[in-house]
Amino acid sequence: MSSAATQRTHAIGLLKSRGMLRQMDLVAEGIAPETLARLVRDAVVARPARGLYQLSNARFEAAHALAAAAVLVPKGVVCLTSALQFHELTLQMPSSLWMAIDRAAWRPKIDYPRVRFVRFPELALAEGITRHRIEGVDVPITDPARTIVDCFRYRAKVGLDVAMEGLREGLRRRRCTPDDLWRAARNARIWPVMRPYVEAMATDAA
Predict the structure, then answer these.
(1) Residue 166: partners with Cβ closer than 8 Å, 6 or more residues away
(2) How far is it, in rounded angstroms, from Cα 57 to Cα 123?
(3) Contact criterion met (CB below 8 Å) for 141 and 78
(4) Do residues 9 and 41 make contact, with C-beta atoms less than 8 angstroms apart?
(5) Alpha-carbon distances, residue 115 vs 53, 97, 101 (angstroms)
(6) Alpha carbon distance 48, 112 (integer Å)
(7) How far is the CA of 129 from the CAs of 139, 145, 195, 204, 205, in angstroms?
(8) Residue 189: how many CB atoms within 10 A of its CB?
């Protein structure tokens, strides 16, 4: 095991380059829990949630919670209203962060951020996903078309008004086209539900 001073330097370097890390990731890099505890006591490192670490002087972005969730739920995908908000397609301020996980995956228990989970089939966790660098963390988020389609698919959870707002803003801001929506909705088998709304709004936007 390397010295405490070397571990300390290594931990700070990792957090500078990667933003946030779980304790298990830091331990795998040869950093002892005792070193992490001292860094927290010295106010060099902060622990925003159990088992999650970042530098105390890190600049928080508005999407800080997305980065934290991506670290704590490595195979999760930001979706629904949270993805709409990220893409600036809604004025809604969800009280919880929406993340999709595999149908068979264990449901994580985390203290922060507050997360609501929805289960997607494995294939759906790979389609229509874009990755964004937030506070040094690679965060997977559904793209605009996929997000709007998901909101219609899960309208009982997020509300039809939210799905309609996302559709209207997505077309108005040209974040997606009717063809993009058709492809995503066809894959999700929800195009018959969405079609009249898309056609009406596309006509209004023309």
Answers:
(1) 84, 89, 90, 147, 148, 151
(2) 39
(3) yes
(4) no
(5) 18, 5, 11
(6) 7
(7) 10, 10, 22, 28, 26
(8) 9
Contacts of 130 (CB under 8 A, 6+ apart): 140, 141, 142, 143
Helix axes 144-153, 178-187, angle to 10 degrees: 50
Q: pLDDT tens digit string along 103-145?
A: 988 888 887 888 999 999 888 888 999 999 988 899 999 999 9
Q: How far apart are CA 33 and CA 24, in angstroms?
A: 9
Tokens 């088998």, located at residue = 189
pLDDT on residue 107? 87
Structure tokens at 163: 């799905």
Tokens describing residue 61? 């972005």
